[in-house]
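can u do me a favor
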C-alpha cells in the first residue's frame, strides 16, 4: 500500500502535525507540502492535513482533496478553536465531503494550533460584541491555542495515523492488546 503525507500550512502548525503523522508510516514514506504534492493517483493511502480557514479546509488543501479519488484517507487538521467544541467537530464531520468520489476517510485527528499574531491583532481591533472580537474568553482561547500543537498533540496524531493505516491495511489495531489479554487468560 503506497502511502503519502500531504499537508497545507500557513504558519507551520499543520506541518508539525504532518511530521508526527509521518513517524507512523513505513520508512521512506513521502511527505509533501500540498503546493508541490504529486498527483494523488500515485498512492493508495493519503494522510491529508489542512488548517481551518473560516470553518473549512484552507483553499489549497480543498483543491487537492477534491483530486483524491477512490483512495483511503486519514485526515488531520489544526484550528484555533478548542478541540472539544462544536466548531471543531463540525470541521471533522464535514472533512470527508471534500474528498473526490470514492475516497474513504478512515479516521481523523485534530488539535489546536497557534493563531497568527497578525490575525489576533486584527481581531483585537474589531468592535466589541462581534463574533470574533476580543473578550476575556477569546483571549484565553488564543493564549491556549498559542501552546499548540504540543508534544501530547503530536504523540496523539502519530497514534491516530498509525491506527488508521492499520485499518486501511485490513489489520486489527487491537491485535496486540487482544493477544496479550488471551495470554493472560491462559495463565
Ligand atoms: C485567515 C485565517 C482564518 C482562520 N479561520 C479559522 C476558523 O474558522 N476556525 C478556527 O478554529 N481557526 C481558524 N484559524 C486559525 C488556524 O486554523 C490555526 O491557527 C491553524 O493552526 C493554522 O495552521 P498553520 O500554522 O498550519 O497554518 C484561522 C486562521 C487564519 C489565519
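np, heres the sequence
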Amino acid at each position: 500500500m503506497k502511502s503519502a503525507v500531504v499537508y497545507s500550512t500557513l504558519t507551520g502548525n499543520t506541518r508539525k502535525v504532518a511530521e508526527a503523522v509521518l513517524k507512523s508510516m513505513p520508512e521512506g514514506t513521502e511527505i509533501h507540502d500540498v503546493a508541490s504534492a504529486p498527483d494523488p493517483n500515485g498512492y493508495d493511502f493519503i494522510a491529508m492535513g489542512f488548517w481551518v480557514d473560516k470553518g473549512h479546509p484552507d483553499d489549497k488543501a480543498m483543491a487537492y482533496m477534491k483530486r483524491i479519488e477512490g483512495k483511503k484517507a486519514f485526515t488531520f487538521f489544526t484550528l484555533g478553536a478548542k478541540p472539544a467544541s462544536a466548531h471543531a467537530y463540525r470541521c471533522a464531520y464535514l472533512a470527508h465531503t471534500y474528498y473526490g468520489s470514492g475516497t474513504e476517510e478512515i479516521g481523523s485527528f485534530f488539535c489546536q494550533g497557534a493563531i497568527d499574531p497578525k490575525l489576533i491583532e486584527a481581531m483585537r481591533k474589531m468592535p466589541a460584541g462581534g463574533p470574533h472580537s476580543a473578550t476575556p474568553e477569546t483571549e484565553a482561547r488564543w493564549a491556549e491555542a498559542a501552546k499548540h500543537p504540543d508534544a501530547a498533540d503530536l504523540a496523539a496524531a502519530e497514534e491516530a495515523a498509525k491506527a488508521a493505516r492499520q485499518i486501511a491495511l485490513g489489520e486489527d489495531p487491537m491485535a496486540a492488546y487482544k493477544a496479550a489479554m488471551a495470554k493472560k487468560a491462559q495463565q
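Residues 9-14, 51-55, 78-81, 87, 113-116, 119 surround flavin mononucleotide (CB under 6 Å). hope that helps!!
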